[in-house]
Amino acid sequence: MSRLTEDNVRVAHEIISRYPRPRSATIPLLHLAQQQDGYVTNDAIRHIGELVGATSAEVLGTATFYEMFKFEPVGKYLVNICRTMSCALMGGEELMHHAEHRLGIKAGSTTPDGMFTLEHAECQAACTEAPTLQVNYRYRFRVTPETFDALIDDLAAGRLDSEIPAHGTVARIRQHIPAERGVGAVPPEDATNAPSWMTVAEAPK
Amino acid sequence: MTGTTYTHAPGFVAGDRPQIVTARFQYEDSYTLERALATDGYAGLRAALSRSATEVHDEVKAATVLGRGGAGFPAGTKWGLTPAGVWPRYLVVNGDESEPGTYKDRLLMERDPHQLIEGCLIACYAAGLSQCFLYIRGEMALAQERVAAALNEAYAAGYVGRNILGSDFSLDIVLHWGAGAYVVGEETALIESLEGNRGMPRLKPPFFPAAIGLYGKPTIVNNVETMANLPWLMRNGSAAYTAIGSATSPGTRMVAVSGHVKRPGVYEIINGTTTFRDLLYGEEFCGGIRDNNELKAFVPGGGSAPWFLPDQLDLPFEGRLIGAAGSMAGSGAVMVMDDTTDIPNAALTLTRFYAHESCGKCTPCREGGTWLMRILDRVVAGQGTHRDLDQLLEVGATICPGDFPHASSERLGLAAVPFPYKMTTICFVGPSAYTPVHSALTLFRDEFEAKLVKRTFIPVTAVSVSETEAAL
What we know:
By secondary structure, chain A is of the alpha+beta class. Chain A is built from seven helices and four strands.
């Protein structure tokens, strides 16, 4: 179940085809695996290695560098509360304190019902709207204890399902290059001529 | 939900100022092709395609479009650094925005993806780049969706792909997205990541991207905001562009002001002439410090920048002047601390960030950053000693030997030490862990010392302190 499904293998091949070298698709394919299973499984790592021409160790090496990839199940909702300077200046730590009490867990853990995982996050690039959090990478701005509680209630009741997909899905819209419009990726060793529109010869530097 | 009403671009504050990159933000549907086309969208591309690639490149050089990512290197000059006759060449657009305090690229991607796409097309046409990769930070779900949708629209309408607008200019723009790592914002780490590897920076030399970049080929790495400037530039020309801003910093730039101000926001300001006083106190900007408190200190250019005091308020937002005064304009992010701020703890929030984000390649950063964080953590927690303060400076000196840049202070009788610093690491993550420690300790040492004389007391048994004292 944890290798990529047939449908996802089709998506994977489309992604790989956009790059001059298949290994460039490693991170997008890890996201695809996480979207499928909620986290990145060992089988998925092996499968991705087969697809991009890398060893499992190389794929695992890449995957473990990046914080968004999880290697064991996390909650349906990953709640990331920012603690970097601008949020800290506006009460980010206090918000985390409240969140830990509300969810009954410490940052870094998951509620027993598997609904929420709470994590500290570093700067989320919304500093003027501090304190901020993201739920499965969807923003909430200027969060107060009251709006945090309302958010948790809404998530638990399924009222935000249309806006916030379960953990694993980041963007819900994918790029698709139509075959008749795309130029196509060429391995760098096969593209050693100047592009057609560069008609004027370059002066040596 | 938040109790705050937002305009269409949450955080962005418009004003009666020239808008080069944010003109479309006023429209609710600013991210659609329909809106772009109704508001001069792709007119800059048409203007570029009507001229030769060399002419377009010269126009960008003449405008001196400074890179908006942090280093401030002129884009037109950068494009000219590729070795002659070596092909293919690539464009990698850096949308991995994660510098503390900074956000503008996220807004530009979410609110006006077509402007960004148009900018990428112009850059690739001018510099002969045969494929473009748009690297968006992993955590920015909405930006990824908006750019993906915009690319799909632009491909369908013939603005991207084969024979663009019927010309012999053909280009694929590939949306790529990361997975959470600050260091990947460094250009060589970005390239490593795009090749499917751990995002660790490469040594320069020899790995200057313009010479040896993606797949070992010449690669131009430009910031999102830099690209977003190009459509306006092509429509209006370099003379109109340089008429805005100062001679050394033309045009506008986006600056995020956060922290203890009355109206935090992202502002498109006139480059090079707007002062920090305008920004923090001006009615058209932040309108003063919250609750009319006193300003204590501010970070002028993102979390990596040495701190400024109220003494520096009259400096304009101009790279060279800020550098001479002991800091950097960086990524255009000002973080403001009022007089209620606990300075050592504020420094810790930044040092912890950089220690956490160290990729581990260079020992001074991997070990030193963590040491700085641990020592600072115990000082803030009231468990520190006087030796710890000296140790912080000693550890910092292993990352950045010699004089470290800092602001001048009339109160402390300090003269400014200009930017930049020396460093023992490949990239700026290590020095950035030290920057807040050095600034805070240099400018507010008394606050650290005050924490050394208090100790938090946790009794081993339930016997209270007063009972213990009574027994004695």
